[in-house]
Specification:
alpha+beta
Length: 241
């Protein structure tokens, strides 16, 4: 692929990822700078094959399944002048706790950088202090409306960018059609749950059917990369059993 095609592809992915409320770092080396705001919203979840559900030990459908941790935080991004939502798993949140204890989340802007190519289940994220928050920026952050993380986590909140300050007055892109969602779910069911988690985190969604229509092609490409990385015995593993 020529440099012109690669640049066009990267710009297309960048523009496709703009406007939503979730922070998305798609490629190795992608970075974002912002401020962690408010309290975290943590939940133990189970992947049902179509969506994340809050873990319930009394639910027969959850019996024998190991829940995973997902933690969301409001994250103000000065470059976009927008309050976003950032989400990660156990290791990511442990790193957030480390920088909170060492630097204080209310005092610094932090740079978050992705380490891992698109589709790599071993992707990690570094969190480093970027610069101190001055009084002017602090007041600006305080005036920004935080997102209702509990509502988003339960599936009742907005996840397509309608409440994003940068998307006011713009038509929101709808989710993919049910047929396309079904095709993606069928492909994901052949993969280990860690890869399914990586897919959902990559696109900042809780359920496959919430994927914006404009990202359908990127989602297919992502799944194809995951599939090609599987060992020959991967088809014998059913993480949805």
């Amino acid at each position: 692929m020529s440099n012109a095609w690669e640049r066009a592809r990267d710009l297309a992915e960048q523009h496709a990822n703009q406007g939503g409320i979730f922070v998305r770092l798609t490629n190795n080396g992608d970075k974002i700078v912002g401020a962690f705001c408010g309290e975290p919203h943590a939940r133990e979840v189970i992947w049902t094959g179509d969506r994340y559900e809050a873990f319930d030990e009394d639910n027969p459908g959850h019996s024998g399944k190991r829940p995973s941790l997902r933690v969301m935080l409001n994250f103000f991004v000065p470059a976009e002048d927008a309050m976003k939502v950032i989400e990660g798993g156990t290791m990511w949140f442990k790193d957030v706790l480390k920088v909170r204890d060492k630097y204080g989340l209310d005092k610094w802007l932090f740079e978050i950088e992705r380490h891992g190519e698109s589709g790599d289940p071993k992707t990690t994220y570094s969190i480093l202090p970027e610069e101190k928050i001055d009084d002017e920026l602090r007041a600006h952050i305080a005036a920004a409306e935080p997102h209702d993380l509990a509502a988003i986590g339960s599936g009742d909140g907005d996840t397509d960018g309608k409440d994003d300050p940068k998307s006011k007055g713009k038509p929101a892109s709808g989710p993919i059609d049910p047929r396309s969602a079904g095709e993606l779910v069928a492909q994901l069911k052949s993969l280990p749950r860690s890869d399914v988690d990586a897919f959902l985190a990559e696109f900042g969604i809780q359920r496959v059917r919430d994927l914006p229509a404009q990202q359908a092609e990127a989602a297919r490409t992502f799944i194809q990369k995951l599939t090609t990385q599987q060992p020959e015995t991967a088809g014998e593993i059913d993480p949805f059993a």
